[in-house]
Specification:
781 residues, alpha/beta, Rossmann fold, Four Helix Bundle (Hemerythrin (Met), subunit A), PH-domain like, 8-stranded mixed sheet, elongated, hydrolase, EC 3.6.5.5, GED_dom, microtubule
Length: 781
């Protein structure tokens, strides 16, 4: 492999996988790895057990692998296993390893065939393995069993695509030999994500179970459905051997004997079998890691730079230092005051270009929303005239009035001014809510996270569970708690809550979110139905929505008194003139009042609320916090913050260690490059020269094909096989009685036509061995 540094590549990737998996992150890095894909009972688990030399994977019928298993094989003098979720515990008994895999799988998926994309990390140390990292994925299935969902086929497919779509992932496509290769699920899905075949390695299992008289020679020689990295055949233990506890070492010896003794495979026996597969995967994964090192290094450096500033605060961090707590409190209050004033005054360094916030929203309330609420107030002309008429009559009493009374004007105006109280209070509420949102924005506060189920009709996809994040500005939901794949973000403006009755088909408690302006909330839905397991969860979520400014729907009960028809009487002309006079005066006066209120309300709110809030934050908030209680407990580091600090420091050190290791590795090491594309156009055509096997030639093996005529006669020279056959295999040492020259099996080439007048070479002697011309460009190069 060139140097010691190249041998450290796979352990380096193992360390990165452990470092990022332990903190629940992937650091946005696609680490090089090998994913094992195939149908159910294709023999994937048996191949992995043959690598280790131990029985350690769950067995059974149907779907057995129900969570991805990241298997890290490490060459070591001692033999034991470790799980990432059981740190510090060494498993010497591999039966306990199997039991732990089953228990950890059932912990997340249940015991009735459910699946989960969250992987299990297992590291096996053994002197019998080469450094190798593989991911054993669930086998592809068609029919759901147990409590599996109806779309189990699509779920498994999506899980496989999560791994094999990445360009850094090699694909180990496992296909049994006793099935039609053209219908291989593994090769089909590999072809979708790797159409050029740059990352796919074919493995053919169950060669010993093929029908009598048939073999897989064309497949293993890469003639049928060729792959750039070729195929490798293996023979696993049968179910009878497994039930009989047949030793894996004996099974490997039987596998070796099978390939050496089988007439169709004996000429490629050195390139078949589990040991060669493990060695080939080790070499190809190492080369693949070497090729991806430049991109991996740049990603690591960018991640490290993004963490530098935040980690700088934690390098000399002492949680119990009282001076640190006092300083941190003072800095937090000062920074909060600066951020709050910037949000209100609009002088922030970072300007939001997607949404209005802070002072801009308050300005919109003052000059758009509040005037609209005033204009929206409509006076019932008939009702107003009737009120004026009653007021005039009640003021005159038993006398007939000759003049329009001033008291009627005052009574009517006072009543109309009282009606302006509601839009003014609504304006104040809107400003208060926006101030609360601004405070939360300055503190970057997430109100709640958790799982909720969105109830959608079966015709539109059915109910699904998502990870919800509620902030002061929006409600977002993601595919899972890693919060990487956002499904939707719903702004909280004009949203309210509504109680719903529990469905008779579900045991979950349900509530709904809807828009008060009758707009669609999500896609074409006017409301979103959210479900929780218990009523306590519903109440807890409602309380969280209240903190975010989303309130429950109020019951609209209109108790309007019916108008008494007997009170509606005709008025005399004099009374009508008095009513018209007061009506005009009221209209003019209310217009003046509206203009004054429209002008005074923003000024009053700014003076009494916003400026007072700024003064309180700058001058009184710190003193208030000191007088509120024990500062030590107030500034005590929360468990979440301590965990985040530890995770960030571990991530930082893992990135630095990875960059140091990568820096020590020579990227100029000579290794086998990716094979060139397979030219299979000659397979369909029969060459004109005879290409029959020289079965009667003495001294040549019966299965050896003819070669291409060389320039000079002589004994056959050792050549590297075609890349389609796999990595180069060295010649056997001299003196080996079983040494057989390795000549690739392929038809003879048709010589190109010569121009007229140029004599052709005489044909070769019938029994003379032929030599491959070294300088001829071909697939052997």
């Amino acid at each position: 492999m060139g140097n010691r540094g190249m041998e450290d590549l796979i352990p380096l990737i193992n360390k990165l996988q452990d470092a990022f998996s332990s903190i629940g992150q992937t650091c946005n890095l696609d680490l090089p790895q090998i994913a094992v894909v195939g149908g159910q009972s294709a023999g994937k688990s048996s191949v992995l057990e043959n690598f280790v030399g131990r029985d350690f994977l769950p067995r059974g019928s149907g779907i057995v692998t129900r969570r991805p298993l990241i298997l890290q094989l490490v060459n070591s003098k001692a033999e034991y296993a470790e799980f990432l979720h059981c740190k510090g515990r060494k498993f010497v008994d591999f039966d306990e390893v199997r039991q732990e895999i089953e228990a950890e799988t059932d912990r997340l998926t249940g015991s009735n065939k459910g699946i989960s994309p969250i992987p299990i990390n297992l590291r096996v140390y053994s002197p019998n393995v080469l450094n190798l990292t593989l991911i054993d994925l669930p086998g592809m299935t068609k029919v759901p069993v147990g409590d599996q969902p109806q779309d189990i086929e699509h779920q498994i497919r999506d899980m496989l695509l999560q791994f094999i779509t990445k360009e850094s992932c090699l694909i180990l496509a496992v296909t049994p030999a006793n099935t039609d290769l053209a219908n291989s699920d593994a090769l089909k899905i590999a072809k979708e994500v790797d159409p050029q075949g740059l990352r796919t390695i074919g493995v053919i299992t169950k060669l010993d179970l093929m029908d009598e008289g048939t073999d897989a020679r064309d497949i293993l020689e890469n003639k049928l459905l060729p792959l750039r990295r070729g195929y490798i055949g293996v023979v696993n233990r049968s179910q009878k051997d497994i039930d009989g506890k047949k030793d894996i070492r004996a099974a490997l010896a039987a596998e070796r004997k099978f390939f050496l003794s089988h007439p169709a495979y004996r000429h490629i026996a050195e390139r078949m079998g589990t040991p060669h597969l493990q060695k080939s995967l080790n070499q190809q994964l190492t080369n693949h890691i070497r090729d991806t090192l430049p991109g991996l290094r740049s990603k690591l450096q960018s991640q490290l730079l993004s963490l530098e500033k935040e980690v700088e605060e934690y390098k000399n961090f002492r949680p119990d230092d009282p001076a640190r707590k006092t300083k941190a409190l003072l800095q937090m209050v000062q920074q909060f005051g600066v951020d709050f004033e910037k949000c209100i005054e609009g002088s922030g360094d970072q300007v939001d270009t997607s949404n209005l916030s802070g002072g801009a929203k308050i300005n919109r309330i003052f000059h758009e929303r509040f005037p609209f609420e005033l204009v929206k107030m409509e006076f019932d002309e008939k009702e107003l005239r009737k009120e004026i008429s009653y007021a005039i009559k009640n003021i005159h009493g038993v006398r007939t009035g000759l003049f329009t009374p001033d008291l009627a004007f005052e009574a009517i105006v006072k009543k109309q001014i009282i009606k302006l109280k509601e839009p003014c209070l609504k304006c104040i509420d809107l400003v208060i809510q926006e101030l609360i949102n601004t405070v939360r924005q300055c503190t970057n506060k997430v109100i709640r996270r958790g799982w909720l189920t969105i109830n959608i009709s079966i015709m539109k996809g059915g109910s699904k569970e998502y990870w919800f994040v509620l902030t002061a500005e929006s409600l977002s939901w993601y595919k899972d708690e890693e919060e990487k794949e956002k499904k939707y973000m719903l702004p909280l403006d004009n949203l309210k809550l509504r109680d719903l009755e529990k469905s008779f088909m579900s045991s979950k408690q349900v509530f709904a979110i809807f828009n008060t302006e009758q707009r669609n909330v999500y896609k074409d839905l006017r409301q979103i139905e959210l479900a929780c397991d218990t009523q306590e969860d519903v109440d807890s979520w409602k309380a969280s929505f209240l903190r975010a400014g989303v309130y429950p729907e109020k019951d609209q009960t209109e108790n309007e008194d019916a108008m008494n028809s007997s009170d509606t009487v005709s008025m005399d002309p004099q009374l009508e003139r008095q009513v018209e006079t007061i009506r005009n005066l009221v209209d003019s006066y209310i217009s003046i009042v509206n203009k004054s209120i429209r002008d005074l309300m923003p000024k009053t709110i700014m003076h009494l609320m916003i400026n007072s809030a700024k003064d309180f934050i700058h001058s009184e908030l710190l003193a208030y916090l000191y007088s509120a209680g024990d500062q030590g407990s107030l500034m005590e580091e929360s468990a979440e913050q301590a965990q985040r600090r530890d995770e960030m420091l571990r991530m930082y050190h893992a990135l630095k260690e990875a960059l140091v290791l990568i820096g020590d590795i020579s990227t100029t090491t000579i290794s086998t490059p990716v094979p060139p594309p397979v030219d299979d156009t000659w397979i369909a055509k029969e060459p004109s020269p005879p290409a029959s096997r020289p079965g009667t030639t003495s001294g040549a093996p019966p299965s050896r094909p003819p070669g291409v005529r060389g320039a000079t006669p002589g004994p056959p020279s050792a050549v590297n096989p075609s890349p389609a056959f796999g990595p180069p295999v060295p010649s056997r040492p001299p003196g080996d009685p079983n040494s057989v020259p390795l000549v690739p099996s392929r038809p003879a080439r048709v010589p190109p036509a010569l121009p007229p007048g140029v004599p052709r070479r005489p044909p070769a002697a019938p029994n003379r061995p032929t030599i491959i011309r070294p300088s001829e460009p071909s697939l052997l190069d």
